[in-house]
Design goal:
Strand content of chain A: 15-25%
Number of domains of chain A: 2
Oligomer: homodimer
Structural class of chain A: alpha+beta
Largest sheet of chain A: 5 strands, mixed
Largest interface: A-B, 72 and 73 residues
Radius of gyration of chain A: 19 Å
Order of helices and strands of chain A: EHEHEHHEEEEHEEEEHE
CATH class of the largest domain in chain A: Alpha Beta
Distance between the termini of chain A: 39 Å
Number of helices of chain A: 6
Strand order of the largest sheet of chain A: 1-12-2-8-9
Chain lengths: 246, 246
């Protein structure tokens, strides 16, 4: 039988600035144990990595200016959103759903205007969230704990209102758990089922993080996982030819 | 600061049959407390409610026969899937994404061939999962505990591989938590953010339920929620005119 899990909020972190040692800051605020999974909101990873764009330095294209004017948006922010994307998936009314450089599909390329600390700046997603996760996991190992790391962000989705936290970077554990070839209690073989545990862990972490509180990190304790040095979010990103909603 | 949460697996339930008192069976296996959230896999709700279709009694339409033959499916199962749907969202190769009578978009209308106990039968989703949740919540109240109830199912999603558990029925707590009008720690007002906590709770529950183990129920303890007698999944179902991926 699976274990009971605990989900612990990690509060008390300082305001994160470029160059901050995130893992050390987290390590100082929570009593981590081997096997814990540390879930970090991408916002503070972006801050620590300096993924900050000064809007004064942005020269919007004609396309960005035209659309921004139509929907009363800041054309410089629109330019940043477009620059972070490789493809526009939907552009309907004021809504812009893009595919990011990493292959994630989300609103506004994950560009965050809300919490960049000062006006006139926006945060963009980490350049390589898997690498960010690996770096933090390695730093936790230096500090003496063998933990998995998941970088999370808050995404909307089709058909259902409300956003949920999903994984955008991972280190240590595989994001997908496959049941294919296994059998249920009645002997029926699973043919298609594969669970995205990374997204389930991310969703669980949001329940203690909240968005108005200063809790950008959570720890899941008690979940059993196999160590995988080559873990990444790549297998979660659906190939274009398998995707029915491009 | 948010509380730490516990997620407890509930094992030891009997094989559920039509007419079983689910809440009483769960109550007998876990020490529930007021404020707990009980997450029940829809499969056992369907079994308890007799949402079982005998395939021998199904007469497939020409459309179901034609498509089933093309993709080596059982035409009777295809007929059940079509009968449970109000609209086909995508029909590409062997994949059939439908909108169910409830308004959920998922593969095969949520029809479950895997665990109906005997071959020649399939399970369909509960007719009214909110009503199922309300009934179980009321039964738990009779047994002496004030708990929220969430009925879950395992759905795929666009763009990302792997399935996750989502909520399909709810009682006691609102599925959405809105931050609109609130302010983040930097004083920035949230303009659009609304979190689907019901889906996050469902996702969290899957981490202890698993699919090959006999753990169809989980309990989330420590999550603070307001009692809402009129809670339902209706606000999660996106209106057609707001949906960009119909």
């Amino acid at each position: 039988m699976p274990n009971a899990l605990s989900i612990l909020p990690v509060a008390g972190l300082p305001e994160i600035e470029p160059g901050h040692d995130l893992a050390a800051a987290i390590f100082g605020q929570v009593d981590l144990a081997d096997g814990d999974i540390v879930l970090i909101t991408s916002k503070i990873v972006s801050k620590a990595e300096g993924c900050i764009v000064e809007l004064d330095e942005i020269e919007p294209s004609a396309f960005a200016r035209s659309w921004a004017t139509q929907w009363e948006k800041d054309p410089r922010v629109v330019e940043v959103v477009l620059g972070e994307s490789t493809r526009i998936v939907r552009q309907v009314g004021p809504v812009l759903i893009t595919e990011t450089r990493h292959g994630f599909v989300c609103a506004n390329s994950g560009v965050d205007q809300s919490s960049s600390g000062a006006h006139g700046r926006v945060l963009v997603l980490p350049a390589d969230p898997d690498a960010s996760a690996r770096r933090e996991r390695a730093r936790f190992a230096e500090l003496g704990v063998d933990v998995a790391v998941v970088i999370t962000d808050t995404f909307g989705r089709p058909w259902r209102e409300g956003q949920t936290d999903v994984a955008i970077g991972i280190a240590g554990l595989d994001p997908l758990h496959s049941y294919i070839g296994q059998h249920d209690p009645h002997g029926h073989e699973f043919r298609v089922q594969e669970i995205c545990v990374a997204d389930e862990l991310a969703a669980a972490s949001e329940l203690v993080k909240g968005n108005t509180s200063r809790v950008p990190v959570a720890v899941v304790r008690g979940y059993e996982w196999e160590r995988r040095a080559d873990a990444s979010m790549a297998p979660v990103i659906r190939d274009a030819e398998r995707d029915l909603f491009r």
